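Worked Example 4.2. Read the sequence first, then its structure tokens.
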Amino acid sequence: MKTFATFFFAFFITAISAQETAFNQFYSVNKEKSTFSINLSASLAGSFLDDDDDSDLLNIIKKSSDFKLMIFNNQDNVVSKDFKKFSRKNNLKTLVRVKENNSNAELFFIEKNNYIREIIIRTNSDSDKLVLFGVKTKITHDELAAMISSSDVKLASN
């Protein structure tokens, strides 16, 4: 019985740690460089939208959890370099990359079993700050494409 209990406890701990998002792993390693961090639940994030807002966005919020916003001190681009290594190691796929003047924004995602499991938005400018926003989710490529295509944001190239 002790062996069974030990095995069950070890399996439970492994299952819990496997649920940690890659994004949270990045934060754990770089926590000392963070100047601000906040977690939001899906219900709290959804409360900022009313029912008349974009239905695709509401659908994604309903299928999401673990919203995390982090601001890092990025002096000498240390955190940016760490994030670049992290993105390669975790096979982050770049969906959108925007550069304007000295500001950058990138939208990454992690895909598992034909679902987008995490979305990470990275922004920075020539200041010494790096902002990351991560969302744990379970949406399809079609759902994400529908949200992006119905967005009011217009992209233009020079």
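Now turn to a second chain, presented in exactly the same format:
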Amino acid sequence: MKLAFFITFLAFAVTRGIESNAQSRPNIILIIADDLGWNDLGCYGNPAVRTPNIDRMAKDGIKFNNVFVTSSSCSPSRSSIITGRYPHSTGAAELHTPLPAGMTFFPEILKRNGYYTAQAGKWHEGPHTRRAYDTLITAARSGVGGEEMWLALLKDRPNDKPFFFWFAALDAHRPWQPDSALQPHDPSKVIVPPALADTKETREDLAAYYNEIARLDRYIGQINDELQRQGIAENTVVIFMSDNGRPFPGSKTRMNNAGVKTPFIIKWPQSGKKGRECNGLISAVDIAPTLLEIAKAPPVPSIQGKSFTSLFKDPGQSFREYVFTEHNWHDYEAYERAVRTKDFLYIFNARPQFSNQGPRDAVNSPSFKSLLAAREKGELTTPQKDIFLAPRPAEELYDLNKDKDQVNNLASDSRFAAMKKKLSGVLTRWQNETGDTQPVGLTPDWYDRITGEKTDKDKVRGEMPGKSKGAGNGM
């Protein structure tokens, strides 16, 4: 009996020791939506879309109001997040280009330092990122919205390690996938953005988009419930964000707020901050160093961002003076660079001869067809005309405090000449410091900008921005 008791006690002690070691560092879950506009959530001011679980996250954590992805295009944006580098500095600045083997991925650093790492859902950063994960579940096994394996991973994880999960939804990317388990949104109640024509077809398009957001929200609720059930919610950092703006004209592939501003919520009960808001400027390149610091992992010299853990203690302080973003090829030839402060946005366009009507999936949408019909009738508003504008301005400047939709271009206004010159200089300096280049032979259009049909040109790639300076070598 004494021996049996001793063995039982020893097993209990070992188990408790393993669990204690696993919880000495926080667990981390990064949930990233696909093509979700920053203000298409209840907690960010949209009363028409149903997001109770995300809204609860904001109430129980910190809601960040000025976080920006580095690109308004999905794979370059995600490549920046996983490397902590700007798109032209990753070797994968354009859509559907894989990250080079020489890049360092922050989940692999977590893995080397004792974390169990897993990815489930949209896997869009290239085959070399496979090495960053102990478990990789691609979209083919993840259900229509990309979320179906999340709960299983959380339940079946090893209990002797802290964990990092990259949960990558396919929601809310086109084409829409109906969900009979959810009550559909009412098209008459959606919020139509200024860049879209308010028609029956547009409203139905937006309602279907809202439905996908609601499905994602449901799975986030399940994750939160399971963390509570396992008793690890207090020591788990849960982050919610999007990779770029909504998949509609005037949003995705744009340098304005609709294209690159992301919802960003962190729930970490152990941090002690609840129901707070942070207005400091943050870039997506700052996510990797922040998570490495939280995990007590060593810093990575190749990372171009900086940790914002100080904002957990004081969300009211400022963080960045400038945030930089870029737009490279996404179905169509492009080269745009932007810098913003808390007050102004400056955009430089090296391909002003082209319109920016949105990516191909937006061009093929009912919303775009409604814009075409309104153009035929001469009924486009100023923001809607901008969808078709060609040539575009080579420079744009917006007062973010007075122009929330970035409609009034101040670049030619003499009253703002000093500000334009200052921000242009800041942008040029950043390009030089990060090895950005302007190749003459960029990747050309693969599709017609109005019909979305394949062009008669071969699908060839041009020179990648940053390549001639070796910016994608990870140094």
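Notes for the reader: The two ends are 62 Å apart (CA to CA). The first helix runs from residue 2 to 22.
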